[in-house]
Amino acid sequence: MLGRTGQGRTGTRAALALGITLAMAVPAFAECRPGQVQLRGDFGTAAFSVEIADDDGERAQGLMHRESMGRFAGMLFVFERPQRAVFWMENTLIPLDMLFIDASGVVRHVHENAVPMDRTPIDGGTDIQYVLEINGGMASRLGIEEGAELRHPAIAADDAAWPCDE
What we know:
The model is unreliable at 1-23 (pLDDT under 50). 14% of the residues lie in helices and 37% in strands. Strands 7-6-9-4-3-2-10 form a seven-stranded mixed sheet. Strands 1-5-8 form a three-stranded antiparallel sheet. The protein is built from three helices and ten strands, in the order E-H-E-E-H-E-E-E-E-E-E-H-E. The longest helix has 12 residues, at 13-24. The chain has helices at 13-24, 56-61, 138-142; strands at 2-5, 36-41, 44-53, 73-83, 85-88, 96-101, 107-114, 122-123, 128-135, 149-151. The protein has 166 residues and is mainly beta. A hairpin with a 5-residue loop joins strand 6 and strand 7.
């Protein structure tokens, strides 16, 4: 996946239900860690192990050339300030859901099942400071929608809708 900003490039039902329930069970005492994000919303809670892309080189590389990704894994793109976030799927081999998130950690747009290798721009909107990429279809399976809140240490506690110290 190659990210760009406006400034430049940048089995069974039971088993499935059990897997989702377990993945969504984020203990109230779960601490914030750089390698994990937590999401909460009407669906409950969910956690993903993440790699962080917080500089131009890491954001440009993104998830390109990967043939697979763990079921509850992803990549969190962190920008220095809120901005227009436009991504595409050039050289990305797996379908992805992209969650475009504002400075307070609130999901403002969900783009589901981005098509591998597609160069069509995916515009997440303005005032976006974080983008979480997860496996394609996962947002729908879990019920993650606009308005969900993300918790991660990169989000300043004073600005966070769901701060790490809660």
